[in-house]
Amino acid sequence: MVNNILDYLYASKNKYPDKVAVADDKTSLTYTDLVGNAGNVAAGLLKYVGRRKPVPVYMDKSCMTLAVFMGIVMTGNFYVLLDPSHPVERINNILETLDADIIVTNEKNIKKTDKLGFKGTIICVEELLSSEITGSVKAKLDSIKETHMDIDPLYAIFTSGSTGVPKGVVVNHRSVIDFIECFTETFNISDNDIIGNQAPFDFDVSVKDIYSSLKCGATLRIIPKSMFSFPTRLLDYLDDSNVTTLIWAVSALCIVTTFKGFDYKIPGSINKVIFSGEVMPVKHLNIWREAYPDAMFVNVYGPTEITCNCTYYIVDREYGIDDVLPMGKAFKNERVFLLDESDNLISEEEAKKIGEICVSGTAVTMGYFNNKDKTDSAFVQNPLNKYFNEIIYRTGDLGYYNEEGLLCFSSRKDFQIKHNGHRIELGEIDMAINAVDGVVRACCIYDQKNNKIIAFYEGDTDNKSITHTLLGKLPKFMLPEVFEKVESMPITKNGKIDRKALMEGYNA
Ligand code: AMP
């Protein structure tokens, strides 16, 4: 029985020892190299780590980052990628939540860790790689693997939190194994595939890239981030590296079409395009389908909290630009259902009736690290089941069934948005602006049509000072594009900020 994702890694290493497992713009690792490097990392880490603890990895994504992930897993711990380009304050927030003993970084980023004020051990991968796998180290690692359970965490991914503190979703091996088995089988991913990785490693779309590759003995090509600013270079890269499979955020696919990339080149080997993260605009999908009439296109849906995705729809007909592309049906071994406002089940026959999308199954994750309150409010007992324990995740997404009984996305229940592919709680930006000297209060609104976050604020300061402060607190993708100073916030009769009035005032 596969109970550890290392089983995938070792099986692929035995089957394809010299095949490239992962490549970035500087280097590549065969399956043998990947296992070897991960083993060295694990050997070096053993004296610092316990079991089932988070190990933050403060590195940009690369082949070596994957080797570090695997090394951490070999020690019976779980990895948490911290993006070195994010502001110190945010990283420190996460480190505080994690209460970790050690950070793994590399020579490139070690200087930056001085600013973190982290009190534990900071170690470079370059040093770890020189650790020897002695007989006693091997015995220790074997015993860790032997006593591993599939409910042990594999990774945690931090998402934006509405109260200003990012939430760390903890995901165990079982959730990933169950999902990846089904994902690779449903979409025929095999050892013939070269998967072109777009997603950052702290975004769970990358989990599909990484574990589909390791399970199938495919090759993972890490596409340099900079290429997404130059679509022609991106297309050259995809073509030159014979990428077959794209598992990308909608926003990344739209970059190619927005810049009319296919007028320049249609890379030759792509045969699967799997997208998620937000509603795919049919106009853009149609351009992709025209370029690849024989490829499989799939709309997959789901939040990080249910391990990547819970529904899928293989596009099987033409869609007009005003048609709604469905999110489809649940993956095998997952139950996805709609609850109305009184927690009654909405049946597939009740087409168009809107309810909250809820998910049950082994893919439901373990909740938020060190955050019981938030966990308890979203991971709850299935209200339809009063007989035995069944935890479901309430996604906060509203959906409905179409006439064919396929699930479609409607909107969010709260103030979470998707902006250029990033999941953002507007409340987290509100909190950061509220903390700026001179601000009395702030409220952010998303202008979907123009793809802009608008920050309204009341107080005795200006846009420049706010932006300056925010740069030190929030990642760049969370910075509002527009700041609007208001005399006083409009208030609803319930005493809340009147967002509708704010937006009307802005548009007037
Ligand atoms: P994340 O946790 O970053 O993957 O973001 C999950 C959220 O993105 C979901 O709760 C939805 O609001 C949105 N989302 C993901 N996939 C889709 C999709 N295929 N169509 C519409 N919205 C999506």
What does this structure look like?
The chain is an alpha/beta fold. Strands 2-1-10-9-11-12-13-14-15 form a nine-stranded mixed beta sheet. α10 (250-258) packs across α11. The protein is globular, with a radius of gyration of 23 Å. The protein binds adenosine monophosphate. Adenosine monophosphate is lined by residues 159, 204, 276-279, 299, 301, 303-304, 327, 395, 397, 409, 412, 418, 423. The site of adenosine monophosphate (AMP) has 17 residues, from β13, β20 and β21.
What is the SS-derived class? Answer: alpha/beta
Radius of gyration: 23 Å
> Average pLDDT value?
96
Please state how the strands of the largest beta sheet are arranged side by side. 2-1-10-9-11-12-13-14-15
Note the main sheet: 9 strands, mixed
- How much strand content do the residues show? 25-35%
Helix content: 25-40%
Oligomer: single chain
Bound molecules: adenosine monophosphate
Low-confidence stretches: none
- Described by the principal axes of the CA atoms, the overall outline is globular
Count of DSSP H/I helices: 15
Give the secondary structure arrangement, pairings included.
Elements lengths: L4 H11 L4 E4 L4 E3 H15 L8 E5 L4 H12 L3 E4 L6 H11 L3 E4 L15 E4 H4 L6 H12 L6 E7 L7 E6 H14 L7 E4 L7 H12 L2 E4 L8 H10 L4 E5 H9 L13 E5 L5 H10 L4 E6 L9 E4 L14 E2 L3 E6 L5 E2 L8 E7 L10 H7 E3 L9 E11 L5 E6 L3 E4 L2 E4 H9 L4 E9 L4 E8 L3 H9 L10 E4 L13 H9 L1
Parallel strand pairs: 1-10, 3-4, 3-5, 5-6, 9-10, 9-11, 11-12, 12-13, 25-26
Antiparallel strand pairs: 1-2, 7-8, 13-14, 14-15, 16-17, 16-18, 18-20, 19-20, 20-21, 22-23, 24-25
Bound molecules: adenosine monophosphate.
